[in-house]
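Example 9 (inverse folding). The structure is encoded as follows.
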């Protein structure tokens, strides 16, 4: 984490997000290179020039989704094993890609469904054929969707997120078997005795 100085913090880039460090926290401005990020950064600079000791985003209305997700990942590292952290990072990637600059209390069930739709559409290249194939099975999509809800639930515990946001997100039903665009992995078979 960079040292705090009296100078106005510079713009930094994390994936496709523009942010600045202030008082040991990341202040997100929006999507990197977007006009919105430029405007938000100029407002941020102006506010700091007027009051260098300004404490930003103390209320939930100012905390953006990317900030909440970043803080949650820092928190979860000590709580679960590394493989679970990796899965949370994948879920966060889908969340922040679409709604990173949205304030946490503007998030809603429809926005959660949009994130889920992005997971359904996600593709990767097949190692053998080189052709695009679906990346995530239905079960993983449901798991990642629940992980996003868990991030907001933690936000309620830490207070930037309103409880009714999480209650609404919990009403989003899991994808059922056979939903268009999804697939299920075949059930695992028993290991043959000769292998044992």
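The amino acid assigned to each position is listed next.
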């Amino acid at each position: 984490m960079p040292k705090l100085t009296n100078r106005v913090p510079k713009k930094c880039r994390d994936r496709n997000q523009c942010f600045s460090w202030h008082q040991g926290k990341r202040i997100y401005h929006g999507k990197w290179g977007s006009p919105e990020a430029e405007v938000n950064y100029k407002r941020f600079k102006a506010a700091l020039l007027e009051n260098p000791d300004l404490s930003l985003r103390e209320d939930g209305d100012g905390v953006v989704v990317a900030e909440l997700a970043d803080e949650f990942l820092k928190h979860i590292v000590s709580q679960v094993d590394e493989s679970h952290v990796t899965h949370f990072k994948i879920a966060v990637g889908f969340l922040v890609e679409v709604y990173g600059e949205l304030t946490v209390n503007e998030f809603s069930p429809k926005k959660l469904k949009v994130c889920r739709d992005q997971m359904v559409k996600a593709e990767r290249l097949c190692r053998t054929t080189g052709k695009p194939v679906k990346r995530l099975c239905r079960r993983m999509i449901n798991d990642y969707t629940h992980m996003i809800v868990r991030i907001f639930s933690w936000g309620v515990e830490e207070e930037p997120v309103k409880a009714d946001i999480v209650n609404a997100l919990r009403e989003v039903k899991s994808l059922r078997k056979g939903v268009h665009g999804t697939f299920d992995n075949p059930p695992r078979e028993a290991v043959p005795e000769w292998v044992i």
